[in-house]
Amino acid sequence: MNVGNLVKESLKAIPEPTLRRLPIYHQYLKKIDKEDFISCTTIANDLCLEAIQVRKDISLTGIVGKPQVGYSVKQLMSAIEDFLGWNNVMDAFLVGVGSLGSAILGYKGFEKYGLNILAGFDVDDSKVGTEIHRKKIYHIEKLPSLIKRMKIKIGILTLPASCAQEIANTMVEAGIKALWNFSPIKITTREEIIVLNENLAASLAVLSKKLQEQQNRN
Amino acid sequence: MNVGNLVKESLKAIPEPTLRRLPIYHQYLKKIDKEDFISCTTIANDLCLEAIQVRKDISLTGIVGKPQVGYSVKQLMSAIEDFLGWNNVMDAFLVGVGSLGSAILGYKGFEKYGLNILAGFDVDDSKVGTEIHRKKIYHIEKLPSLIKRMKIKIGILTLPASCAQEIANTMVEAGIKALWNFSPIKITTREEIIVLNENLAASLAVLSKKLQEQQNRN
DNA sequence: TAGATTGTTAATCGATTAACAATC
DNA sequence: TAGATTGTTAATCGATTAACAATC
Question: Range of A169's domain?
Fold first, then answer.
């Protein structure tokens, strides 16, 4: 692969399915890091995937393996970390400190994955001013000014359906560039803003419909 | 469409992207249910989708619209409910009553979406015997016998990476047919078991990589 | 009727999978 | 060297999108 291709390659967006599998490879490699080298066949077998798919995903991170040997586990892990930006931790605000919001505030794993939740926001005066899992909770009124002052780019929404879109709009106006939305409603914004809608009802629909289909088959 | 096609159609699995969008249409329709009829163009515009995609999704639920008028909002909502089985509530057990597990135990929305979490399970003796959000917490030892006795088909995993696979295996042996996994590791099982892996690291990878790409573009 | 909308068949696009050459 | 594995190009498959006929 020549330099021209590399440039072209880097301009092409990475397929979303690949992005979703890379952390799974990393989680898997963590468990088996006694081994020096691993082949994509082994990874695929253990994760119920196709070897060719693993190989293609890995090639997108830019790492090269050794024929007859496989990939260096260490090298592969750190290539995934670099590729996904886990070494450049980004700050985020979380809005809506209900039970799901609190759980996410307290999740220790995010910093390893490049995300640092700085603070939480809520309208509930009994929460404002307290700390939850060591993160300060501010009144939602302060959200726009703090987003601007601290140049926060990522917002996490754990809000009721009724106000999620409105608060999302406020945050985007204040300069937020990416929204991770756990509210039970789809958030829509200007095209250039990244929105990732995590919809529990959507996932549950997949689970229960597949279960129905499975039960009907027998 | 004749009866033969209907039968053929019902045997074909519904595409997963469609299953994920149907609940989003429902959440959207709830907000605007003053209107009698709605066109797929309107739905698509409001949800940033393509009209043809909405039309195709809707057609898979079996509902028919009226040319020049659109779809009856009421009819469409109840068709989605029926199609996704929201009227046949299924029981589930949740394993791992940490902060995420507790949040999910307490989420009121699931019953509307056809899921009733009956109880929680944990190894922590300070939790066993208590109630969290009105759900009893049992020791994980009792999991297999209760799954068998109550014929539970759905398990929700909110466990640390270190024990998630092992407990999943136990549950499948006891008769669980579907696993909804929030643990930070991919769960693999026998082919006929439905597994839905919700991996926060995977989602975060999509969000942060897209944000990187977006920032590099400018 | 004219026109807007649905329903269906065909074309396109992107991800997965297959085939095979390159490598150690 | 032979053989196992990677890397790359081509084929396949499924979802999205386009085109257009059917409908009220």
Answer: 90-202
